[in-house]
Amino acid sequence: MAARQRARPPPRLLPRPPEEREVVRHKSFSLARESPDEAAFEMEMMDYGFHLFTDIGTGEDSVLYRSGPTGYRLAQVRPHPHLVGPVAVPLTVSDLPAPRMNVAGAKRRLNIAGLPFVFFADDTTGRGNVLCHRYDGH
């Protein structure tokens, strides 16, 4: 799948000091059960930077994002690289499990690492979660 050209550049994040950042919105929904190919298609069509889903082949909560030598990287709560595939989109698969933590721990990691998002397994439920920066810096 060829990467889709963006119609406009992504919005710049409002710079906000880490100590002022707050978690201002929580979304809860059932994760779609789909293949990495379907996740890549949805991610491209919706112009997302990442896509959280349940991998239909492994049953694992997973996140697909743009990275690595292939253009896409797949991370899972409990990785099963040998069960992923075959896929049409070129991707690399992380063999590291998602870190188990709560939202406060994910917020610390997001602020320290300077990443656009953090994928983690909730320390209570074990389910995959993503914490990301908003356009307003929160």
Automatic annotation (TrEMBL):
This is Sigma 54 modulation/S30EA ribosomal C-terminal domain-containing protein. Residues 19-74 form the Sigma 54 modulation/S30EA ribosomal protein C-terminal domain. Pfam families: Ribosom_S30AE_C. PANTHER family: 30S RIBOSOMAL PROTEIN (PTHR33231). Residues 1-31 are annotated as: Disordered. InterPro entries: HPF/YfiA_ribosome-assoc, Ribosom_S30AE_C.
